[in-house]
Amino acid sequence: MSVFIACEADSDFATPASNSSNGTNSSYARILTVGDFLYAVNLNEIVTFDAIDPSDPTEIDRQVIGTGIETIFHHEGILLIGSSEGTFTYTIEASGIPRRRGQFDYNTLDLPVEPCDPVVAAGNVAYATLYTRENNVGICGRDQTINLLVVMDITDLENPSLITTVETPSPRGLAVRGDLLFVCNEFSGLTVYDVSDTSRPRVISTVNDVVAYDVIVKDDVLIVVGGSELIQYDYANPEALIRLSTIDMT
Question: What are the structural domains, with CATH classification, of the chain?
Answer without folding.
Answer: 3-213 (2.130.10.10)
